Amino acid sequence: MAADNNLKDAALIDIKEMESVNYYGSGIKVIALLDTPFGANIYEVSFDESKSRDNITSKKVEALFPGNSKINMGDGEVLKQFIAFSKQKYPSERYSLIIWNHGEGLRVCQDGGSNDWLTTVELEAALKDHFFEFIGFDACFMSVTDVAYCLKNSSDIMVASQDFEEEGGWDYTYILKEFAKSHKNGETMGKILVNSYTNKYSGKNLSLYYLRNIDNYINELYLFYEELKKLDKAVIKRIILGIPPINNSFYDAKSVFLAFYSIFDTKSVSNELDLFVAFGGTSLYFPTQKQDIDVAFYSNNGLFRDYFDVLLQ
What we know:
Blueprint (H helix, E strand, L loop, with lengths): L7 H12 L10 E7 L2 E7 L13 E3 L14 H14 L7 E4 L6 E5 L4 E4 H8 L7 E4 L6 H6 L6 E4 L11 H10 L4 H15 L6 E4 L3 H16 L3 H9 L8 E3 H8 L6 H10 E3 L3 E3 L9 H7 L6 H4 L2
Parallel strand pairs: 4-7, 7-8
Antiparallel strand pairs: 1-2, 2-3, 5-6, 8-9, 9-11, 10-12
Helix pairs in contact: 2-3, 5-6, 7-10, 9-10
């Protein structure tokens, strides 16, 4: 939970939601790395019988980071260390991971103290050699194809928001109550996350992905970009600008494929998209202005950087 920024109060609310659930004996355990402007602590989250609102009552686990340490949550090494520590101290047959913070599509976990973010490359490296029942992003705009692809070897299930997340974030009271009842596999838990968000915010949705199906989608997506290379850039720009953006230069993939269907056949890539996206949607990056993109950043972190000339409109 990267709250060394303007989300420190929201982080406390979400920890208190977790502490409101007595899931003792259910077979689940929640370990939270929380970083705020006051420092970082690891908590073994437990039921707060006092129902206090202002204080975290869960036990601090200080074996990895000394209490209130200053750490950089935008550094992939911190995430890597936290995962290794948690798996060593809390052995289990299955693990899941939720990353909590601001999101900007190709990066997440803004650390205000270090002015740093966790990139897709750092995410992939931190999760290497680990497998999770699901990976979730309680953050805005992380339902991006590039992000999903970097996680494909670390889970079969990913859950994230394609759009702005509501200010209250995920409903951890509902989530932990449901996890305590049923946590038999990642798909079941992923659907609980989606349902919890829909129940909390009527008309708002999270996206759920089957990462095991992403390779075929990516292969078709590369072919789609090859077809784009044959078109005049003015035509591409006109079509892209006719699609309502999700945020800045991120566009819904299904909408993009439908928009180009009148020019060349996009059925194959759309079909593979449907097998990859179980619920919701995924975004593609089409910067419409040069100032929308840090070229060096995308060259290091974007999955389709070889098609930058096509993507940049």
